[in-house]
Amino acid sequence: MKKYHRLLNIEVEFLNNLIYRGNNQFKNNLRHRKMILLSRLIKKSNYSKIVNTCEDIYIICSSEAVLGHFLDINFTVMALVARIRYLIIKLF
Fold first, then answer.
1. What is the rounded distance in angstroms from the CA atom of residue 20 to the CA atom of residue 60?
2. 68: left (phi over 0), alpha (psi -120 to 50) or beta
3. Fewer CB within 10 Å of terminal CB in the chain, N or C?
């Protein structure tokens, strides 16, 4: 269990770095706003909403990736939220 907590902390730190780096470029983007919401939910430990928000972000990123917009950031965010969702389900 301690291993999963450590992995979750690493993923959350990476999420916060992505949010910080994307503040100027993606300020009013729906994906960026959902990522900020996810970061706040993780701090509050609201696990059911975390899982739902991860699924929402994954759907948003996949629809943007299909259109060909910002492929690198979308695939990175998709992988990140998939790992966070898996770790939350595994832990709780």
1. 19
2. left
3. N
